Amino acid sequence: MQKNRLAPVLLISLLVMIDQAVKIIISRWFFDRCFGLVGDMLQFSPVHNTALSWVNSSLNLGIGFIPHLLLNAFLVVIVVLI
C-alpha cells in the first residue's frame, strides 16, 4: 500500500476503534443513565437499536435482515466504484 493511501486507512481504523470503545463503555457502565446535556434540547439516553440501522428504526421501515444486508452490500459497491 502506498504511503499516501495508508494515512486515511489508519485514520479511519482509529476512528472506528474509538467509536466501538465508546459504545462498549456506554453499554457496560452508563446504559442505565439518562441526563440532560443542554437542558431539554439535548439529552443522553442510550437505547439498543434492534432495527438494524438508524434509518430503519427512525422511519419505522420494518426492513428485515436479508434485505437490509443486500441494501448495505449494494451501497458499499456503489461507494467503492465512485
UniProtKB/TrEMBL annotation:
<keyword id="KW-0472">Membrane</keyword>
<protein>
    <recommendedName>
        <fullName>Signal peptidase II</fullName>
    </recommendedName>
</protein>
<keyword id="KW-0812">Transmembrane</keyword>
<feature type="transmembrane region" description="Helical">
    <location>
        <begin position="61"/>
        <end position="81"/>
    </location>
</feature>
<keyword id="KW-1133">Transmembrane helix</keyword>
